[in-house]
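Hey, resending since the last one bounced:
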Amino acid sequence: MLPRPAYSSPRRPAPSSPASRSLSMAAHRSPMAAEPILITGAGGFVGSALMRALAGTRRIIATDRAELDCADLPGITALQGEIDNPALVTAIAAEPLAAIIHLATIPGGAAETDPALAARINVAAPMALIDAVTAYGNVPRLIFASSIAVFGHPMPQWVDDDTQVRPLKLYGAHKAMMEEWIATLDRRGTVRGLSLRLPGILARPLAPSGMKSAFLGDLFHALKTRKPITLPVSADAYSWLLSRRALVEQLIIALDLATDPASTRLNLPALRVRMGDLVTEVARQTGADPMLATYAPDPAIEAAFGAQPPLATPAANALGLTHDGDIAALVANALADL
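The C-alpha cells again:
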C-alpha cells in the first residue's frame, strides 16, 4: 500500500465580511489554537459529550439543528440550523478551520423511512459543507463518524481492517459513499481524512432516535428504574459495543494524531458482547432483577445487530485507540452517563 502524502497548510487570509469578523471574535482565543475546530451534530448524544470534553482546550464552532446548551462552556461558538442551510454554511466557512468532526446524520431507521431526507443530510449536505470550509487552501483534519453499517448483514465470520464493505441499508450505503469521497479528498490533498466506523454506543437517551438499535440503550434505562423490557434479540445475540466515554476518548486521540494511518478508514475497537451477559452485568451493577429483561427475537433486528462476529482492529490499536476493556467497565461507563 502506498503511503499517504504529507501535507502542508497554505491558506489565504480570511475574508473580511461582517460574518467573518463576528465569528472570529465570538469565541475566546487564548490559550486555544488560532484556527477553530468544527463539530457538527454537537447537540447529539456523542456530540454533546465531545463538546464538553474539548471545551476550554481549543476554539470550537458547534452546530446542531436544535439550540445548544453550552453557555457555561469556554471557547465555544454555537450556531443553530440545518446543516445544509446556506446561511449556516456561510457562517461556518467564515474563517479557516483546523479540523472538522462530522457527527450529524440521519440514522438507520429514519433513513429507510425518508430516503430523500437521508440522502440530503447524509451525503449532499456534508459534501457541500466540506467544499465550503476547505476553500481557503489549508488542509484540515476531517474526522467522519462512519458506521459498522457499511458491512451490511449477514456479516462474514470474521471482520478486520481488510473486510470489504457491502452495505444493505441506505444508512450504511450513505456512510460508505462518504468514506470513499473523503478518501478521494485525502488523496487530492484537500483534507487529512479519517472515517471512523462506530459500533453500538451506550447508553443513548430514551428519546426517539430513529435507530433500530435503540433497545441496547433502553436496557440500561429499564433495569436502572426497575422496569420490564422485552429485547428484540435473543440472549445469545452478539453485538459490538462501546461506551460514549470510550468513544469520546477515541475521537480526541484521532483529532490530535500527528501522523496519518495508511488508510483513511478505521474500524474502531469495541467489545463483542453476548446479550445475556450484558443483561446480567447491567442487573448486577444496578441491583435490578435480570428477569425484568425478556427476549422476543425479531429476525431482522437480530440479523442486523445481534449477529456480529469476532472483530480485529489492529490499525486503530496501533494509533492508541482502545475500547472499554471489559464488560464491567463498559457497563459502568455507560451507567455513569445516565
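Residues 1-31 have pLDDT under 50 and may be disordered.

Sorry for the duplicate.
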